[in-house]
Design goal:
By secondary structure, the protein is an alpha+beta fold. It contains 24 helices and 26 strands. Strands 14, 15, 16, 18, 19, 21 and 22 form a 7-stranded antiparallel sheet that branches. A 5-stranded mixed sheet has the order 2-13-10-3-9. Bound molecules: 2-(butylsulfanyl)adenosine (IVH).
């Protein structure tokens, strides 16, 4: 038994820790511990405060919803506070919640709605006379940040709704970055030497809190609306389920995986199903949310502190495991970044064997105090690259070794340098074979010049055979040279050459991206292409001109200047020009694009191209894509083994396209 002084001390210690982690998570978007570990701290504090109410104070982190808004954005007062949810972690705890709730409504029978608890960012959207007027973050629950301009860039948020809607109403939902978009963004950030987002929630928060909405617009953010905040001037449905149907009919995006249940056993079953099934979801979910369906009962149940009594989150077990960190390896990135990674004693995490995990950079390894030989906690979330959360210090033997970055590049032996203000170390030799190969792979990649047939292995072969020394050499390749290579048949050689030929017509943004200039990702390449219309204009731009562009900071400006100053790069560009690669373009007007205003949804498997590619081609012609069918959807593209979207589209009378018809449409335009 702890004495009272001991309890008080522990309560204070927990508060200090939780406040620190709240700040890291909500303000800096950069947590140090996993959600599961955070939940555990919160749980212990709540339990102590319940048991010893004399130590409960109004400023305890259990008494507030989040952290204060960052000042860069305007402040929005929420007319009705945005609540958070209590958590349960086991069947017994769920049943205890159910029993308590039943008792509070005097044994009255009630229905439930089960929903996924998506790991994103809560927002409140206010509509007046059918127009979206404000979009805000949750902030501390009472006051959030005004991020209207950024939210307006999310295609699944209607900017206006039918005049039939209530005169003034607020809906709430979760903005999120689908797993695919999250991985892509982090990959780009890694290539650019930027720090990675720890999870999709931080990535979503980081994306909507960009001061420049054009950056937000480039991120594939999405939203599911999960409740009606308030509505004036019109009666709204008596149940949550019907309210969601009503909101869907107004054009809001509601998660198709929501279900209506009559018994708590069904809720339990829903949870079980998704513990297994969550990997296949396109978004990250960390549990289910169980809501009492009747709005009348919700009101009777009310809130306790900042948590409703009528809803609860039933979390999924975290997929974590502990294992030994045998060593720390270094891989060399395209821009020369030296990327440390953990070499682990293979361990199964949620059914997948993990041997390696990302370690980001030396500072991060220091901060987490990860040492070679440590027993570490590793975590895997969805398709996200496995992460090392931190060491278990109590398991140390004293033999563990502190890691320091090597002074030389492990591939070419050139000096490793760290620039002022940057977190990454770089290999200083731009001719380092690892860098050259990565640059070549980047150049031919799908997001770049998209040269089919030249992947990792052919890139390596071409370099080894001396046929290619830099990316411009690709355009001088001859069939006779290719067929001499191992495993290169006549037909494959033709295919490679025809892909190279086709790549000459790629849009300017792709070329800028493909060149692999430090700090230029796909988003930035598009902004620069729109701004400059040609490589020559970009190459000529002065530092002042560049830094006057709102999204270009001094670091990026310097990197562009340095790139175009280098003789070798200027030669490469000249040779690309001579080879006929398109290095300039007219700015296209959105209304001239043939698919402008048309929204496409894809279901099932496509044969001729990947879904990502189909979407890119639709977007290139001005069309938009979405992951769910609504009244605004123009076409549903039906691939092999279509999902439930097909039935939904049929019910709405949406036009259907086969993959072949889509191809036809894209080629015609
Ligand atoms: S309902 C009063 N439903 O979880 C109930 N929340 O800790 C308020 N979340 O801030 C929330 N998916 O950001 C609800 N289907 C869902 C949700 C959901 C994710 C988030 C939301 C909220 C947090 C609660």
């Amino acid at each position: 038994m702890r004495d009272l002084a001991g309890v008080k001390e522990r309560v204070e210690e927990l508060r200090g820790e939780i406040n620190h982690h709240n700040y890291r998570y909500y303000v800096l978007d950069s947590p140090e511990i996993s959600d599961a570990e955070y939940d555990e701290l919160m749980r212990e504090l709540k339990q102590l405060e319940e048991q010893y109410p004399q130590f409960l104070t109004p400023d305890s982190p259990t008494q507030r919803v989040g952290a204060a808004p960052v000042e860069a954005f305007g402040v929005v007062e929420h007319p009705l506070p945005l609540l958070s949810l209590g958590n349960v972690f086991s069947r017994d705890e769920l049943l205890a919640w159910y029993t308590r709730t039943s008792r509070l409504v005097a044994g009255k029978q009630f229905n439930f709605v089960g929903e996924h608890k998506i790991d994103g960012l809560a927002v409140a959207l206010t509509y007046v006379d059918g127009q979206l007027i404000t979009g805000a973050t949750r902030g501390d629950g009472f006051r959030g940040e005004d991020i209207t301009q950024n939210l307006r860039t999310i295609r699944s948020i209607p900017l206006s709704v039918s005049k039939e809607a209530p005169t003034r109403f607020e809906v709430r939902g979760e903005v999120f970055l689908p797993k695919e978009g999250f991985n892509k963004l982090n990959q780009e950030r890694a290539d650019e030497g930027l720090s990675l987002f720890a999870n999709p929630r931080n990535a979503a928060a980081g994306s909507v809190r960009q001061l420049d909405p054009r950056i937000t617009a480039k991120r594939p953010l999405d939203i599911y609306i999960y409740m009606l905040g308030y509505a004036e001037g019109k009666a709204t449905p008596p149940t949550h389920w019907e309210t969601m149907e009503y909101l869907e009919s107004l054009g809001f995006k509601v998660n198709p995986n929501n279900r209506l249940f009559t018994t708590i056993e069904q809720v339990e079953e829903y949870h079980r199903t998704w513990v297994e099934g969550k990997e296949s979801l396109p978004y990250e979910a960390d549990g289910i949310v169980v809501k009492v369906d009747s709005v009348d009962l919700q009101e009777r149940l009310g809130n306790i502190g900042h948590e409703p009594r009528w809803a609860i989150a039933y979390k999924f077990p975290a997929i974590q495991a502990t294992t030994c960190l045998n060593d720390i390896g270094i891989s060399v990135g395209r821009t020369g970044t030296l990327n440390p990674y953990a070499i682990l004693e293979p361990v199964s995490v949620g059914g997948v064997t993990i041997k390696q995990a990302a370690l980001h950079n030396e500072d991060d390894i220091r901060r987490k105090d990860i040492r070679i030989g440590d027993t570490v906690i590793v975590q895997r979330a969805g398709e996200v690259i496995p992460q090392v959360i931190g060491p278990i210090v109590s398991k140390r033997s004293g033999q563990e070794k502190i890691f320091t970055m090597p002074p030389r590049c492990p591939v070419c032996g050139a000096e490793a340098i760290k620039l002022e203000g940057e977190v990454m170390h770089y290999c200083s030799n731009s001719a380092c074979p690892a860098q050259v190969q990565q640059r070549l792979e980047h150049f031919v990649s799908r997001g770049g010049m998209d040269i089919r047939g030249i992947g990792e292995s052919l890139s390596a072969t071409l370099l080894q055979a001396g046929l290619v020394r830099n990316v411009a050499d690709l355009y001088d390749l001859k069939k006779e040279q290719l067929i001499q290579l191992d495993r290169m048949a006549d037909k494959s050689a033709d295919n490679v050459l025809s892909s190279i030929e086709k790549s000459k017509q790629r849009p300017l943004a792709r070329v800028i991206f493909a060149l692999g200039i430090l700090h230029i990702g796909e988003e930035m390449a598009e902004l620069l292409a729109k701004e400059f219309h040609s490589i020559d204009n970009l190459a000529k731009a002065s530092r002042d001109y560049l830094t006057n562009i709102s999204t270009v900071g001094p670091k990026l400006a310097d990197s562009i200047i340095v790139f175009f100053k280098q003789e070798e790069n200027r030669n490469i560009i000249n040779r690309l020009k001579m080879a006929g690669v398109r290095l300039e373009e007219e700015a296209a007007q959105p209304e001239e694009l043939s698919l402008a205003g048309e929204e496409f949804v894809i279901t099932g498997r496509l044969e001729a191209f990947s879904r990502q590619e189909a979407e890119a081609r639709i977007k290139a012609l001005g069309g938009s894509t979405s992951s769910s069918v609504t009244r605004r959807t123009t076409y549903l593209v039906v691939g092999a083994d279509p999902g439930s979207k097909l039935a939904h589209a049929q019910a709405l009378g949406t036009k259907l396209l086969t993959e072949e018809e889509l191809l036809h449409l894209l080629e015609q335009k």
